[in-house]
Write a structure and sequence with these properties.
Length: 145
C-alpha cells in the first residue's frame, strides 16, 4: 500500500472534506434514483441583539423532509420556539410536495416533544450512546395519505 492509500484519521472534521463527501454522496443518490429535487431548509429565531436563540436545519429530497438539527437555547426553552420552527419547516416541506418528515433524536433529548407534535417512533437503536437510545421518528404531512 502506498502512502496515498493509507487513511488518515482525524478527530476534527474539515468542513471542506465534509462538504466534498456530502456533494459526492448526493450526486450518487441523484444518479441512482433520478430524483434531483434536493434542497436545504433552515429557519432561525434571533434575539434583539441578532444572536441565534433557536434554529432548525434539514433538507427535502424525493418527497421527504429530513430534519438534521433542531436547537433552542436554554433560556428560551418552553416558550414554543421549537414548535414554531418545526411547524414552519413542516409547512415548507408540504409546499415543496413532501409527504413525510423524518428525524433522529436520542432518548435524553426530545422524543416526547416530537410525539406530542404527531411524530411516531419508527426505529430505536438501544445503547447509542451507552445508557440511552437513538430514536428515529416520522410524521405524515397534510394531504399525504
Amino acid at each position: 500500500m502506498s502512502g496515498s492509500d493509507r487513511p488518515v484519521v482525524e478527530s476534527i472534521a474539515d468542513p471542506e472534506v465534509v462538504r466534498f463527501l456530502e456533494d459526492r454522496i448526493n450526486a450518487f443518490n441523484e444518479d441512482a434514483t433520478g430524483i434531483r429535487d434536493g434542497l436545504d431548509v433552515q429557519a432561525v429565531i434571533r434575539d434583539d441583539d441578532g444572536r441565534i436563540v433557536a434554529g432548525i436545519y434539514g433538507w427535502t429530497w424525493g418527497r421527504t423532509c429530513e430534519v438534521d438539527s433542531l436547537w433552542v437555547a436554554d433560556g428560551h426553552r418552553g416558550r414554543g420556539l421549537g414548535t414554531s420552527l418545526l411547524t414552519a419547516v413542516e409547512r415548507e416541506a408540504a409546499r415543496r410536495g413532501c409527504t413525510q418528515i423524518v428525524l433522529d433524536t436520542h432518548s435524553f433529548q426530545a422524543p416526547e416533544f416530537y410525539r406530542r407534535l404527531g411524530y411516531e417512533t419508527v426505529g430505536v437503536l438501544p445503547g447509542y450512546p451507552h445508557g440511552y437510545d437513538h430514536v428515529t421518528l416520522r410524521k405524515d404531512l397534510p394531504g399525504s395519505r
